[in-house]
Amino acid sequence: MERPRASSRSGEARGRFASPPFVLGGFLLLLVLVFAGSYALGAAVGPIGPASDPPARPAPSPTTHGPHHGGH
User: Fold this and answer.
1) What is the DSSP string of 30-59?
2) Which residues contact 60 (CB under 8 A, 6 or more apart)?
């Protein structure tokens, strides 16, 4: 009995798509898509926490005797 030969096309196609430049290009494309989606979502939602800058306070007057102003 003769066995059917495996088609060499499947090996060629798999080798072509598993080559390092193709895999690296796919990974970089996926990375760009994930970052672009993350940026778009962040821009749409906006900031979700309190402001990073504390509220402005007036400067203490020179006559204030606080713990760091030398009121011994």
Assistant:
1) HHHHHHHHHHHHHHHH---S--SSPPP-PP
2) 66, 69
Whether 43 and 37 have beta carbons less than 8 Å apart is answered as no
Tens-digit pLDDT profile for residues 16-52: 677 899 999 999 999 999 999 999 999 999 888 776 7
Count of domains observed in the chain: 1
34 located within any domain: yes
- To which residue do tokens 């402001």 refer? 51
Structure tokens at 35: 């970052």
Residue at 37 is within a domain: yes
pTM passes above 0.85: no
| Residue 34 one-letter amino acid | V
